[in-house]
Amino acid sequence: MTEDPSVPKEFNPLDMNNYRVEKLPKIQKSGFEKTMMYLGGPLAVLAFVVIYWFVKIPFLEHIDVSSLSKEAGIRLKELGSDGFTRINYAMLAVFAGAIILWITEAVPNYLTSLILIIVMVLTQVTTDKVAYAQLGHPVMWLNILAFVLASMLVKTQVAKRFALWFVVRFGKNSSWVIFSFIVINVVLSAFISATTAKATILLPIFMVIAAIYGARGGNQRNNFGRNLVLQNLFQINIGASGFITGSGANLLAGSLIAGAMGMSLFSYQDWFKAAFPLAIILIVIGWFVGTKIIFPFKRSERLPQIEGGIQYLKEELAKMGKMKPIEYRAIAIFLVVLALWATDKQHGIEQTAVAFLGAVVALLPGIGIVKWNDVDIPWHLMLFSAGAYTLGAGLDATGLPATFVNATFETMGISAQTPFWVLYLFLTSLMLFSALIFQSKTMRALIFVPIAIGVAQKFGYPIMSLSFPVALLIEHVYVMPFNSKPAALLYTTNQYSYIDTIKYGMVMMLISWVMIMVWGETVLKWLGYTNGLFFNT
Q1: What is the dihedral of CA 111, 114, 120, 126, to 10 degrees?
Q2: Looking at the structure, do residues 217 and 359 belong to the same domain, yes or no?
Q3: Residues facing 217 on adjacent strands
Q4: 3-state class of 267 per DSSP?
Q5: pTM score above 0.85
Q6: Confidence check: pLDDT of 228 > 50
Q7: How many CA atoms lie within 13 A of 270 on its CB side?
Q8: Domain tally for the chain?
Q9: 3-state secondary structure at position 322
Q10: Considering Cα of 5, then 8, then 10, then 15, what sign does the dihedral take?
């Protein structure tokens, strides 16, 4: 008997195909967002023209060259000036215009990057060789190669198999189901450097689990669904913060810090030993706060409400069959890459070279895992990143962050006697709570990490003491739906409201700020990154 296509199929809440990304509703821009999008272009052009041709900032006219980086000092001498030159105004104009375009999304972010690169060349902020070379930056290569490696896990479905197996094996009740996703997200964060990719892989799985526990979204929301989706959002982002390869924004921050310290790349090992324990602690706190305080489970939510629901997941896992040789090869390649990354200080091979080796093996005919056409590299994000690195190179070459820090602090009367803890709290709060406004982690890293570097240089503190704690807060983008792509994606599941995400997200942000203070007084002090905050010696 043939099926009548005119008769709508009954919605099956346990069918993973119903939760594919392309089937989720798209968030429509609000009236304000549309207005900002239309005004963004003219505002960016106006800001550039006014700053470049008409603005003169008296308190920036004389720069303390000794407080700038070596490259910036050399650049000023080449220009025959010790003040804020036309090049500096050009850099400021480009920066302001780019920020406006990125915030308002008047044009796609990759197009903004292309525009700022050519404008920086035409205004002689930097040479064409330096500007165009950013697409070949070691961190750019690391980004590209990380996507090659991640594509192995997507093609072979290793990530999906692991997530299904773990939930089936350990998800016996509501609390343990959510706790199991902590392990899943942390493990995937080590392998997959794109938070959106993790969200896309896990979304169909946790949506089926939400349905099993009675959370269908909309009028059928419950605290289990709120916890499951909001905590996955939190875990996806904070899990990424534990690894320098966890996201492109982490890599950018590490690159900026390494550049200021005269290194080529930030050590994977140095980032991991400070960031990973903090990420785990925050994720566990987030699990407790969500399930025990803000959205406690009702009695009816503690056990599955659809008969045979867990059995359905077992069947999904069974459909994948036994582990195939290609899956074992994918796991082996990635484990070797991770081991080499984690021991970079011992063998001296930088992360990019390790990723090169892994990608070459993965692409080798016969023994490899993927073909080039199987590799999903978001080139629009690569171009966006190239623009961000070019902007970072221009900021460093002109000394703009340090100049503004010096001028601002002198104008405000902030002296060298300002306690370290005041600067630490100010900069970490600035980075953390800026996530409520900005839409890009990369942009926040580009703005606030150089500011932290400039403040450290201004007051004579080690660069790591202020810039690294700021970098550890990059991934806190889980409060508003527009804060990150995973946030926008998971909001469309309709499992929680604006009030729900603000309530949970703001509590976790405040806890995270307290934890970064604790970290500065303890772990970062023990590792030699800071001298402590309140009891420094």
Answers
A1: 150
A2: yes
A3: 220
A4: coil
A5: no
A6: yes
A7: 18
A8: 2
A9: coil
A10: positive
